[in-house]
């Protein structure tokens, strides 16, 4: 079974993800950056869940970007955009969170709905 954890506020992301990495040592940790208002996120969510449910020994961290931004200010002030490991450009963004940034893997936007890419992403 996959453990699911939600981070509602980006302000405490680093603290929470560090606690999760420490508390779930030895497990695969996946981070999904999403918005409740985002159609692509809503489309990708059940597909991602179907793939991750096949993974044992895993944790899915769902981190919300918050309210829908004004299109002209999209992600300008987002902590996820400026985060050294995330560098958010579009949502949804799915990350396999590794022990070090070099090994992080990302799927972005429509890639999160692609069955083949998701199969490969969750295969290791």
Automatic annotation (TrEMBL):
Residues 13-124 form the Thioredoxin domain. GO terms for cellular component: cytosol. It comes from the Eukaryota. One of its GO terms (molecular function) is protein-disulfide reductase [NAD(P)H] activity. Belongs to the thioredoxin family. This is Thioredoxin domain-containing protein. It comes from Gigaspora rosea.
């Amino acid at each position: 079974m996959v453990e699911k954890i939600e981070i509602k506020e980006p302000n405490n992301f680093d603290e929470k993800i560090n606690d999760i990495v420490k508390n779930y040592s030895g497990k695969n940790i996946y981070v999904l950056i999403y918005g409740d208002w985002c159609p692509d996120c809503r489309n990708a969510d059940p597909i991602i869940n179907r793939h991750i449910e096949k993974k044992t020994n895993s944790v899915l961290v769902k981190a919300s970007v918050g309210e829908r931004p004004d299109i002209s200010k999209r992600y300008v002030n987002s902590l996820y955009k400026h985060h050294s490991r995330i560098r958010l450009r579009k949502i949804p963004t799915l990350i396999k969170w590794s022990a070090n940034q070099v090994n992080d893997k990302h799927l972005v936007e429509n890639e999160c709905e692609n069955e083949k890419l998701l199969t490969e992403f969750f295969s290791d």
